[in-house]
Amino acid sequence: MKGNRNRKRRRRRKTSAAKYVGILLLLTIVAAGGIVIWNLTPGVKIAKRLEAADAFVQSRNYEEAIASCVEALEIDSKSVEAYRAMAGVYVTKEDWQSAEQILYKGWETTQDEVLLQEYCVHLLNDAVADINRQNCTLETLGKCVTAMEQDQAGADVYKLLDACYSRLFTTEDMTLFCNGKSDGACGFEIYLDVMNRMLGVYESAPAPELKAEILKYAAPSNPALWLDNKHLEDYRNLLARAALLDDGGALGDLTACLEKASWAQNTFAEAFRIFESGEFEPIRDFMQSPEYISLRDQFIEGSVEYWDGKTYIPVCKDRMKLVNTEGKWSFSFADFEEYPQVSGVIKIWGTKQEDAGVQRICISYEPPCTNGEYYPHTTYEFVYLYSNVKIGGQYVPQMNYRFETRVADPMGTTSQLIGDWGGEHEWTTEY
């Protein structure tokens, strides 16, 4: 009996030991499984990718660092820390634009205010850096306005706007809107966009400081600015919008100047159509139109406000020059000397010269250059004057039209003259 009891106790001990081993093994498996599960949570996986990114930055392997951040965002596209980490990599490698772009993308995706604040801080720091490097552009101004649009700029932004203005609008540089050269450079579209955005900020949150900046930027103090004619109406519309803020009439003179320029363009639209058609006969009626006669008389009398000229005034469809003389604005259209790629120039000739008591009328047209070369250069000149007309073998003085075609090249000029042009006694000579 005693032997049986001992055998039973040994079997119970073996069973208990087996149970303990099983429980221990189960606990080990559960614990190991817990580690696996914990390691596979998105937060941990993102943290590991960002730790790797930081290690890559330390070794200056920036591309791998960015790739690690991308992997983190693939795990969770709304990970604020991943966006901040990637922006940090770009900052370290001094790629400021990419840093700003990823912060803005992060804010768009997550709507996290921290990302928005960091984005705006980067923009304003960028603007300060541009200004300090003497590299201030319209894009610099746009960075300040973007921060204002997000209501993240603060009162100091007006100091930046002043700094941008002093560098952009108070110099002799006339290339702000476009230049007088043939390279087609133009910044007016950027200027227009920034100005409309500034007005939008003011309309949503009026501030006297911003109002002052808008009025200042709307009528620049540059001594001269080139403007593509195609932007004339856009500029007029911008001034009309800004004028709603203009209690003191600061924009009045520039607005009147642009209105006169627009009127001049519209007045000569028909003349350009005639000349470009190659059928010149209708120009006689244009020369005698009340609009042209009135403009010619004002030119001769020196009362063409905002529009200066000497012997003639050029008109073109391409570019104009706005001149600021102590706050008084005037304009003139470009000619071939100022802009060789002009698409044609009409000239109003205005000297006091009467024929039999009738003021002489003269207008000329120079078509665009061929293949960008000035020579050979053609000028068509149309004059209504008192001169001899050969009638029945006799020269009889009377008012008539004269049409002259001059072709100039480096060796000289040849001309063909048609007297009594369009009349019954028309005659032609060459010289």
Descriptive terms for the model:
431 residues; Serine Threonine Protein Phosphatase 5, Tetratricopeptide repeat; 2 domains; 7-stranded antiparallel beta sheet; 3-stranded antiparallel beta sheet
Description:
With 431 residues, the chain is of the alpha+beta class. It folds into 2 domains: 42-247, Alpha Horseshoe (Serine Threonine Protein Phosphatase 5, Tetratricopeptide repeat), CATH 1.25.40; 262-430, no CATH class. It has helices spanning 2-39, 42-58, 62-75, 80-92, 96-110, 113-132, 138-149, 157-168, 188-204, 208-218, 232-242, 252-277, 283-287, 290-301, and strands at 224-228, 312-316, 319-325, 328-333, 345-349, 354-355, 358-359, 361-366, 377-391, 394-409, 412-419, 427-430. The protein has a 7-stranded antiparallel sheet. It has a 3-stranded antiparallel sheet with strand order 1-3-4, covered by helices on one side.
